[in-house]
């Protein structure tokens, strides 16, 4: 079972990150994952045409696609322009999803807070409890903002609040998810919430600098990247796939 995850396209009219999306989708179109999850921040500044272009690109894949919004998304535009791609439980509430693919359950929890850059999982724990109640399969949990401290101060100020309440809730379930898979950080990063692995997906827009513990902002050559999660026999291995950065002249 191969679950691809892309995140943080942040499409703008300069088209640079849309070109990175095209490259990622071209790669995935040949690779043939079983499912693709997009963990938010698709388009900047409510650019309606950008949502249309992202939808066209995603629809070219021949696998199911599931979407979460990020703090930068316009939820109304995202719903209307990506209706043919995403399926949401209701037309106005949080854009959670739950789906099963070959014995693996995928959950997406929309933790965005209107008008804020941080996320908050607390209001969505009742949904998670009901959505997880009858799940006895292996599961992956997706969200936009990570529910733990990433160590980059500017990002921790806009992370997902109430991660400990999420952990307490998950610990009451039949089994813990194999991993919590997030976006928002614009870098691949790996940690834990309790004993649950938490991973953040790289972005298709330019990555964030690695500003840890007041160290210097050193140049790096990180390109746009995404994740491919392989799940088999109860084990999860996640692979980082980097693609060439967009060249505006391309
Ligand atoms: Fe974000």
Automatic annotation (TrEMBL):
* Hydrolase in keyword set: yes
UniProt protein name: Metallophosphoesterase
Annotated signal peptide: none
Classification via Pfam families: Metallophos
Q: Where is the Calcineurin-like phosphoesterase domain?
A: 1-188
Which species is the source of this protein? Answer: Rhizobium changzhiense
Family matches, as Gene3D superfamilies = 3.60.21.10
> To which protein family does this belong?
Belongs to the cyclic nucleotide phosphodiesterase class-III family.
Q: Does the record carry rRNA processing as a key word?
A: no
Kindly state which keywords UniProt assigns to this record, in alphabetical order: Hydrolase, Iron, Metal-binding
